[in-house]
Amino acid sequence: MQLAVWTYEGPPHVGAMRVATAMEKLHYVLHAPQGDTYADLLFTMIERRGKRPPVTYTTFEARDLGKDTAQIFQDAAREAVARFKPQAIIVGASCTAELIQDDPAGLSEAMGLPCPVIPLELPSYQRKENWGAAETFYQIVRTLADKSVVREPREGRAARVNILGPTALGFRHRDDLVEIRKILALLGVEVNLVAPLGATPEDITRIGHADFNIVLYPEIADEAARWLEKTFDQPAVRTVPIGVGATRSFIADVAELAGADPTPALGDTSSRMPWWSRSVDSTYLTSKRVFIFGDATHAVAAARIAREELGFEVCGLGCYSREFAREVRAEAARCGIEALITDDHLAVEDAIAAAAPELVLGTQMERHIAKRFGIPCAVISSPVHVQDFPARHSPQMGFEGANVIFDTWVHPLVMGLEEHLLTMFREDFEFSDEAGASHHAAHSPRKASVQAVSEAPVEDIPSSAMADADGTLWTVEAERELKKIPFFVRGKARRNTENFAAAEGRRQIDLETLYDAKAHYAR
Amino acid sequence: MSVADILDGCAAELAHDTGPAIAPARPVLRERGQREVFCGLTGIIWLHRKMQDAFFLVVGSRTCAHLLQSAAGVMIFAEPRFATAIMEERDLAGMVDAQDELDRVVNRLLERRPDIKTLFLVGSCPSEVIKLDLAKAAQRLGAVHMPRVRILNYSGSGIETTFTQGEDACLSALVPVMPALAADAPKELLIVGSLPDIVEDQFLRLFAEMGIAKVGCLPARNARDLPSVGPGTRYLLAQPFLGETAMALEGRGAQRIEALFPFGVDGTSDWLRAAAEAFGIDRALTEQVIAPGRARAARALANLRPQLEGKRITFLPDSQLEVPLARFLQDELGMELVEVGTPYLHRAHLARELDRFGPNVRLSEGQHLDRQLDRVRADRPDITVCGLGLANPLEGEGLTTKWAIELVFSPIHGFDQAADLAELFARPLRRRDMLEV
């Protein structure tokens, strides 16, 4: 048993729902008790979908157990097919139905339904949402793809591609797709199919017509893409175009497979992020310590952008999906840190507290953690919240995505010029540390106790030194001096000084130690 | 669509009143099929706010944890007083003893949270299906942790409970541990059903003014501070979904005071008067105490009546609040009830409410979602009260909706909330008329 307060991922059948809801003319018959319908509100409320997810829940009750739950399933499946006339259905069980072992696959097979039935085996007690989405998409593709398709020769026609991975409830999938289509248009590449988002089961049958695939979200599409590679000899572009550098690589990869000239796409004049990052106001971003946590794809992309495109220092990197831990560990190694692979948000909270970053890039979960710590934060990944579905176009991918990322990550920070003013006038009451950035209305209150201690006159403190949690001793003078350092670098100064003191074997941190440490760490 | 059309083919399911003989027979459309409702676990969202020393540990699956976090909507509480012990493959495959695992999780939790005084082990669909005995676990763990922590259990599973029935199950679990009221003690009043503190305080002030000295509340704000119960207890239900709790209280000798539920001027007056009568309070005094609240509520409702009068409303089954709320909207705001759906119809507790319904109100119990939505589309009511999963899709079809869950989370009982309650229905209609996009 695992004690959980909040979870990063739902159960695997919610992943299946994300695929079903993204598609058209596909229906999901889910063997489940009442209550599991809560999942509908993820789509109708968070994503503001104006249509019910195409899911029929069988709604069995305690009194049905051991009697006719199988019949309830068959009735529900028959009714759903008659009412919604889908081109295909997927069938499966939620966690409770898995325990009663009714075998929706066998039951629906025996019914002779007038449309293809795709059975799903999603082990609820082992796997989670993203895995469920990937498995569902793979099963749909494997079952429906017309394997007799033979591609006509490439000569005299444009290259054709499948874009794989966007689903319902995905982080900016809708907008990313617009950017990807833009790039493909500039390269003269034709889109054979986008799936799951917007695809019908009939569309899926034609998946073999494409020359190659773009794996936009590996968490969802990788499994299917590997099968397509084997079955139809379709190579895959696996570069995820989040960030300027990754977008350039993506364009090069696509151009190569399509035999196209990458120049028009690479020369996109709306790519502003490189100049925004080089312009002098951004100097203050240099080596800002950033903590990154999310799904593997977005976390790895964020780490690269942070290091290479914004000049941040990545002080923490992790993801909640064990399936993609390897990629995250590799990226963490490039940042010179160890990756945090966990789905326990309390462990993430501890790691953030320990790293004392100046910016957190995470999910809605990290947004809450950062808010409590009073650290600026931007959301980069699922799990999502209603705010992550903005009305405006707000992609993460492509050059426009990089522009959006620059704004989203930099705005929570104190702005460049303003940071200098705060430093210069920090003794002025109007520029008090507690004021924070002028463009943020609300700030988490700092802990009153800390303030009380550091503002108390020296004479009132019985001992001249205070021990912090680690037993390191700060003299009152040193503690006061530390307070004069602007708050946004104070955490770093404290940590560096303590590390320095520990390395030097100094038992007490006085003014001398503080300035020795400053000299030691001077860049 | 006529009533006959709707009932066609459902004749076998058409049940007649089996409740108290005084009530005339009223046809009820009983349906089975897909339900679009929450399970009883959802009650934890408001119960953990109400009982500030209690912690709710769901023993369930990842789905349960995901439900709680999705239903809570926003993850606002740093460390809420609820959590899920997520069962994993090894718990089910018998690789570990689930009871040992539960001990481990509970011990760790209680170590970390010394502020917990009452711990509810809450059963879920999977724990019920594998027959994990939480009563036994509560007893065993209670022996270890009492008196510091009292450990109780109930089931909020979707195979047994619908939405607000979770509160019913939770409160029934509290009844056996309520202290005994001596058989010869003077009569005491007990208000049953969780109310927002502000509303509870309003009622307590009114009862005090009437001179009813001892008034208990179930649940109490501190779960370790439970009121007494015994043959001298006269209880008033503040919520219409507490059938099991009522039975448990009666098992301990308490007697129910029959009244309308305290929504609107009529409901609140009837509820307060019934209690006053049971305690032999002078009628003139009762009227004097309730007069200012009645007047205020009537004044506030008068402003809203023009917005709601004549408007047609359908309730989809959700919280069991549907019947008394529909009565309020019909009697005090002049709304026309098209269909009143409820997940479960408690005949005895709702008898007086149902008596007020006009003859053409379609009353339905249970749900077959798609058929019910067909009826909504055919009826085209001015406003449909439904769950969060259905609201935007219905709005997308041009039907104005009110999310039912807000009725559970907002203070709506009593005189001073009557207009707030009406406003919850008026606002979506007003908004629809305001928007020009």
Q: Please tally the helical runs of chain B, counting DSSP H or I stretches of 4 or more residues.
A: 18
Query: What's the rounded overall pLDDT mean of chain A?
Result: 89
Total number of strands of chain A: 17
- Most extensive interface, chain pair and sizes: A-B, 55 and 64 residues
CATH topology (level 3) name of the largest domain in chain B? Rossmann fold
CA distance, first residue to last residue of chain B: 32 Å
For the largest beta sheet of chain B, what order do the strands appear in spatially? 1-12-11-10-13-14
- Low-confidence blocks of residues of chain B: 1-23
Relative strand content of chain A: 5-15%
Q: Please identify the oligomeric state.
A: heterodimer
What's the rounded overall pLDDT mean of chain B?
A: 92
Share of helix among residues of chain A? 40-55%
Shape of chain B: globular
Radius of gyration of chain A, in angstroms, nearest whole number: 27 Å
Strand tally of chain B: 14
**Major β-sheet profile of chain A:** 5 strands, parallel
Alpha carbon gap, first and last residue of chain A = 48 Å
Q: Per the principal axes of the C-alpha atoms, what is the gross shape of chain A?
A: globular
Q: What would you call the structural class of chain A?
A: alpha/beta
Q: How would a textbook summarize the main sheet of chain B?
A: 6 strands, parallel
CATH H-level superfamily title of the largest domain in chain B: Nitrogenase molybdenum iron protein domain
